[in-house]
Amino acid sequence: MDTFGKLWLSPMESVSDLGFRTLCYQHGASLTFTEMVRASALVQGNKATLSLVDTYTSSVKTGLQLLVSKKEILQKAMAVIKEGIEIKDGRFSNISVIDLNFGCPSPMIINLGQGPALLKRTVKMKELLTTLQKESPLPCGIKIRLGLNEIEKKQKVYLKVIEIANDIGLDYVIVHSKTVAGASMAPIDWKALQEIISKAKIPIVGNGLVVDGPSAKKMLDIGCSAVMIARAAVANPWVFEEIESYLMTGKKNPNAKTATDYMKAWNTYKNIADKYGTKNKFYEYHKKMFELRMQGDMKYHSPSRTLKWV
Predict the structure, then answer these.
(1) Cβ(125)–Cβ(164) under 8 Å?
(2) Residues 6 or more apart from 162 whose CB is under 8 A from it?
(3) Label partner for 37 (CA 20 to 30 A): which of 79, 108, 143, 157?
(4) Which pLDDT score, from 0 to 100, does residue 1 have?
């Protein structure tokens, strides 16, 4: 785990392309992730899905997060990844870690019985996690929530998953310490997170509302090995440097970037996006977000919202 540091960039749909990950890595992110990829589409060779796997440079440590619910599909997906690594396919050859997503709150995913809908299915989880650990050519882990709702949370389905991860010997578990039903900006459950840390024999990565030095330090202080940052990094790749500075000095350095800083960051992103042919959804989103920053708008805006403005 020390290899991957303490400050991880979360996989974000319509956000996490190579240009954005590079910006964040240059400014202190220790590990980044592509947008979540559906394992079934990867196995089928879906071009749109394959274009999301863009680890073209070894200078940026990047993880690949898969959505999968069937052992056989996971085995086939691992075979695709292994082959990509062996033949030095630029999409796969620089992947650093692989994990499975059991935390995505998308109703469509849940209605299909995937993602967090699997957390309570102990036998299925054990099968998938065993397959992951056995077949992965790289360090591997999972991302979880506390359950679909308060009922599953009270049943502590998350501890059963941690027990499986312990027994199998995964390299880490990312914990978004809320239920799927919880509001996106609702506080995380610190008690449940501490309970997970106390039971875990493997590193726990804290996720959820890590936006600055104090929020990152709080998670690390209770025993998380690393933290995962999401929306706070959008159009502010410097957030990783700010957090690292706070962890070292205890002093909070507010982001006082100028329009010139944002323009320089945008140009760095643009050059990488142009070189590797990023998807238009990534390009237009980051373009809009940097424009808003240069205009003084410091709020987070989701990709679905900003793309309506284009």
Answers:
(1) yes
(2) 173, 196, 199, 200
(3) 157
(4) 66
